[in-house]
Design goal:
The complex is a heterodimer. Chain A contains one helix and five strands, in the order αβββββ. The N and C termini of chain A lie far apart (43 Å). Chain A has one helix at 3-10, and strands at residues 24-33, 36-50, 57-64, 67-74, 80-87. A five-stranded antiparallel sheet of chain A has the order 4-3-2-1-5, with no helix packed on it. Chain A is 7% helix and 45% strand. In chain A, strand 1 (24-33) and strand 2 (36-50) form a beta hairpin. The model of chain B has no long low-confidence stretch (mean pLDDT 91). By secondary structure, chain B is mostly beta strands. Helix content of chain B is 7%, strand content 40%. In chain B, a hairpin with an 8-residue loop joins strand 3 (32-38) and strand 4. Classes of the chains: A mainly beta, B mainly beta.
Chain lengths: 110, 210
């Protein structure tokens, strides 16, 4: 086996979080504050998945205080403890970048 | 002995114990063999000559085959020399592997950078070029003025001009060693290293950071 593939396999999580583009998700993120470690929940819509293997990332968009916010998480990062799917989305695109231009009801994914 | 000939395999990323994503370059570190041990008595300085990648004997002449026969090693394709201490215990025929980097935190890595051919100043030195609008036409990627008038009457030395870009020896200093994998005989260093994937690199202990 190729050494790059071997390193890639080692850095993957045993269980892959199961979600797709368009899903409304809650991402449980481990954050450190001084010596405390606690879990923060970031919820929003998955608008893209990028890359493959251990380097794969996903982008979660949400509207926070009227301002659009996007965060990119590595799928296999240990700080991403869990990805909870609230609602499955029905979309026809792999990347939902068009959602950036839309507001209110139009931005809603069924 | 704190140096080795390696091969750049490629880049990937790993997660450290804090869960932080680290970009790494994977370098196949040898295994190299010592082909010649130079010493101050005969050669005037102390060094070891390492050989990397086995070579078919029929591809070498008698003269170079003789060197390998003398060191009692199989023929090698690449030979590079590294200075060493006078009391170094290495002798010809010894094998050098990735485990020499176990206690080393920082390394300097040399390689031949990717060749870009003859390039203009916009790509080579990030010059701005000319204006695309307001009548800019024949001046889009040109360097502009290269000097003054009658005085000094010449173009200064080291003026940045078009020319060959890349394909030269580059050394990047103080690269952090992230992981040494003895079982695979590779080392993982933080960030990028000069040269293309599959390119030959020389990995030495950092001279500036211990």
């Amino acid at each position: 086996m190729n050494i790059l593939e071997k390193i890639d396999l080692e850095n993957r999580k045993e269980e892959m979080p199961d979600f797709e583009v368009g899903d409304a998700v809650k991402v449980h993120v481990r954050i450190r504050e001084g010596n405390n470690v606690r879990t923060q929940i970031y919820s929003g819509t998955v608008i893209a998945r990028d890359g493959h293997g251990a380097t794969e990332t996903f982008t979660v968009r949400r509207i926070s205080y009227g301002e659009g916010v996007e965060r990119v998480f590595p799928v296999h990062a240990p700080v991403v403890e869990k990805v909870e799917v609230d609602r499955k989305g029905k979309v026809r695109r792999a990347k939902l970048y068009y959602a950036r231009k839309l507001k209110g009801k139009k931005a809603k994914i069924t | 002995m704190n140096a080795i000939i390696g091969r750049k395999v490629g880049m990937t990323q790993i997660f450290d114990e804090n869960g932080v994503q680290i970009p790494v370059t994977v370098i196949e570190a040898g295994p190299c063999v010592v082909v010649q041990r130079k010493n101050s008595e005969i050669d005037g300085y102390d060094a070891v000559q390492l050989g990397f990648v086995e070579q078919k004997p029929q591809r070498l002449g008698k003269a170079s085959l003789g060197r390998f026969a003398k060191a009692e090693v199989t023929p090698r394709r690449f030979l590079r020399e590294f200075r060493c201490e006078a009391d170094s215990a290495l002798k010809s025929g010894d094998e050098v592997k990735a485990d020499i980097f176990k206690d080393i935190t920082y390394v300097d890595i040399s390689g031949v950078s990717k060749g870009r051919g003859f390039q203009g100043v916009v790509k080579r030195y990030n010059f701005g070029g000319g204006r695309a609008s307001h009548g800019g036409k024949s001046h889009l990627r040109s360097p502009g003025s290269i000097g003054c008038r009658e005085w000094p009457g010449r173009v200064f030395k080291n003026k940045k001009m078009p020319g060959q870009m890349g394909n030269r020896n580059v050394t990047t200093q103080n690269i952090k060693v992230v992981q040494v994998r003895e079982e695979d005989n590779v080392i993982l260093v933080r960030g990028s290293v000069p040269g293309p994937n599959g390119g030959l690199v020389l990995v030495r202990k950092a001279i500036k950071k211990g």
